[in-house]
Write a structure and sequence with these properties.
The chain has 9 helices and 16 strands. By secondary structure, the protein is an alpha+beta fold. The chain folds into 2 domains: about 280 residues, Antithrombin, subunit I, domain 2 (Antithrombin, Chain I, domain 2), CATH 3.30.497.10; about 120 residues, Alpha-1-antitrypsin, domain 1. It is globular, with a radius of gyration of 22 Å. Keywords: Glycoprotein, Signal. GO terms for molecular function: serine-type endopeptidase inhibitor activity. Pfam families: Serpin (PF00079). It comes from Chanos chanos.
Length: about 425
């Protein structure tokens, strides 16, 4: 269904778990002497089974797409998002919340699945889907770097249920390490160091405040580095105006290249679609609304519309100009997720007894940060999220100039997964 899509980025999701009573004194059994212990087969090792991998991955992709567009609309509606860039990794958030759902029961579990658009799926389908998704993303690339995984940072003396640890290990490739949550500043440094390592120092300061009652943090990360199939010549990069809105313009470094591109001009829906291919079976999909039509195009976003645009692509040689930029975006997602329907997990009624039967646990906050860098050679991106759980036809020759706000999706081809999406309103905003 999808042709080449661009995917170049890094993203992680952390879930912090704290308890309302003092943690048990016995040590959990999963920590090794070397502090970090991998709980799944190594990347270079043969996966236990390839059979059904594509089917399982593709079962998740339409649901993950629905979640991605729903979350985008929520983030876009935030007062702080007005006139600003938006960028996040929906699949990393989905995976982290699915990891959390391993330990959730009853209403808490059903609300998580409802928000993730998984209500029509069985937990086994979701978990096996991520098992194979991780395998596909981590085992099939030579031309670019793409790594995705999860971890458990556990307080000394807190012992999660064996089944939760085993399922996290089997389905989500979870590693485990001890963090000194009795000293919040120390724990924050330890976790930030871990995230920085997984994201090649693109995310270094995600965790700032750690609740003193935190007993566990679940971390999911995604990292991708790719090169343009046909690089832009740095000698052809020039200064030009980018029109933030009808009254505001900023000066940017504009990359330029003549080439053969896939594109589609949807006149009825005021949108120009452009594919920028990368090496390694990936591309960036650009959605450039006509002037003044951003809201209308945002209202169209759905997996069905994206498929229609992709299936309508034409191929022609023409010049393209793309801004060279770096950006980051940070979000507190607790309120947003509750507005979307994940309420119980943040309340005293939370049922996370699948993680611990001896401690009452609840989610306290969810933080997310994503970083994107686009230049003549390719793209880099990184992201991380923390979730704390506390006690409780023939067209004329054309030119596509991305000199006004545009949308982008970063999609992995073989699994049809939206890794990242966003809106570039001002390329000069860091």
């Amino acid at each position: 269904m999808w042709d080449k899509f661009f995917c170049y980025l890094t993203f992680g999701l952390l879930l912090v778990i704290a308890c309302a009573a003092a943690p048990a004194s016995n040590d959990h059994c999963i920590h090794s002497a070397d502090h970090h212990k991998h709980l799944h087969h190594a990347k270079e090792e043969h996966h236990p089974s390839h059979e059904g991998a594509h089917q399982d991955c593709h079962l998740l992709s339409p649901h993950n797409a629905d979640f991605a567009f729903s979350l985008y609309r929520k983030l876009n509606a935030l007062p702080d998002s007005k006139g600003k860039n938006i960028f996040f990794s929906p699949v990393s958030i989905s995976m982290a919340l699915s990891l959390l759902a391993l330990g959730a029961k009853e209403q808490t579990h059903s609300e998580i699945y409802r928000v993730l658009e998984y209500s029509n799926l069985q937990p086994a389908q979701v978990n096996e889907g991520y098992e194979h998704l991780l395998h596909m993303l981590n085992h099939s690339r030579d031309a670019f770097q793409l790594e995705m995984g999860s971890s458990l940072a556990i307080r000394q003396g807190f012992k999660p249920l064996d089944k939760f640890l085993q399922d996290a290990q089997h389905y989500y490739q979870s590693e485990a390490f001890t963090a000194d949550f009795s000293k919040p500043d120390v724990a924050a440094q330890e976790i930030n160091k871990y995230i920085a390592k997984k994201t090649e120092d693109m995310i270094t300061d995600l965790v700032k405040d750690v609740d003193k009652d935190t007993v566990m943090m679940l971390i999911s990360y995604l990292f991708f580095r790719g090169k343009w199939e046909k690089p832009f010549d740095a000698k052809r990069t020039y200064k030009d105006d980018f029109h933030v809105d009808e009254n505001t313009k900023v000066t940017v470094d504009m990359m330029s290249r003549n080439g053969l591109y896939q594109y589609y001009i949807d006149q009825a829906n005021h949108t120009t679609v452009l594919m920028l291919p990368y090496k390694g079976n990936a591309s960036m999909m650009i959605l450039l609304p006509d002037e003044g039509k951003m809201q209308e195009v945002e209202g169209l976003l759905s997996k069905e519309q994206i498929k229609h645009w992709h299936d309508s692509l034409l191929r022609e040689r023409f010049p393209v100009t793309v801004p060279k930029f770096s950006m980051s975006a940070t979000y507190s997602l607790a309120d947003t997720l509750q507005e979307m329907g994940m309420v119980n997990a943040f309340s005293q009624s939370a049922d996370l007894s699948g993680i611990s039967e001896s401690h009452k646990l609840m989610v306290s906050k969810v933080e997310h940060k994503a970083v994107l860098k686009v230049d003549e050679r390719g793209t880099e991106a990184a992201a991380a999220t923390t979730v704390e759980i506390v006690l409780m036809s023939a067209l004329p020759r054309l030119r596509i100039n991305l000199n006004r706000p545009f949308l982008l999706l970063i999609v992995e081809d073989s699994t049809k997964t939206i890794l990242f999406m966003g809106k570039i309103t001002d390329p000069t905003a860091v």
